[in-house]
């Protein structure tokens, strides 16, 4: 099976989402450590940030690798023989694995689509002008 992406947009979207995730997790670790003694109202909040960030960093790589591995195992035997469930895999076990894997890939796809839309809208907004009723293309605060 070839898992390489043929779409540069999909690759770019995945990279952007990963960068955002890494930045948020690194920020959580950093803020949690830097301000570990500065939350007297609830002193566990900085600990929560530190642990969440650290586990997020570790688990993102592990989860994605495991999803790819599980996809190979689950999809490589699809469709299972409906008459020979005894010889192939317990029906409920296989169907749950198939459903979970498919839903996770759907979530990955939605995240990629969301980042693509974000990219498109940000480019569209960059091209917007400050066109006003009098026809000038300057923001109101710069006109005299």
Write a brief structural summary.
The chain crosses the membrane at residues 12-35, 47-74, 94-121. With 144 residues, this protein is an all-alpha fold. The chain contains four helices and no strands.
Mean pLDDT: 76
Give the low-pLDDT segments.
1-5
Q: From the alpha-carbon coordinates, what is the Rg to the nearest angstrom?
A: 24 Å
Sketch the topology as an H/E string, one letter per element. Answer: HHHH
**Overall number of structural domains:** 1
SSE blueprint and pairings:
Elements: H1 8-34, H2 44-75, H3 85-88, H4 91-126
Structure description:
The chain is mostly helical. The chain has one domain. It has four helices and no strands. Helix 1 (8-34) packs across helix 4 (91-126) and helix 2 packs across helix 4 (91-126). The longest helix is centred in the C-terminal third of the chain and has 36 residues, at 91-126. It is flat, with a radius of gyration of 24 Å. It starts with 7 loop residues before the first helix and ends in an 18-residue tail after the last helix. Mean pLDDT is 76; it is low at 1-5.
């Amino acid at each position: 099976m070839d898992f390489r992406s043929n779409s540069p947009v999909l690759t770019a979207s995945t990279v952007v989402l990963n960068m955002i995730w890494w930045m948020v997790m690194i920020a959580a670790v950093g803020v949690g450590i830097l301000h570990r003694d500065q939350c007297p109202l609830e002193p566990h909040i900085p600990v929560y940030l530190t642990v969440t960030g650290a586990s997020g960093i570790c688990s993102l790589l592990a989860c994605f690798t495991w999803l790819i591995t599980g996809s190979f195992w689950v999809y490589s035997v699809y469709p299972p023989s409906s008459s020979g469930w005894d010889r192939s895999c317990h029906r409920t076990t296989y169907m749950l694995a198939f459903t979970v894997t498919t839903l996770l890939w759907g979530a990955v796809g939605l995240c990629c689509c969301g980042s693509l839309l974000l990219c498109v809208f940000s480019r569209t907004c960059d091209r917007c002008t400050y066109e006003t009723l009098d026809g000038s293309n300057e923001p109101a605060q710069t006109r005299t």
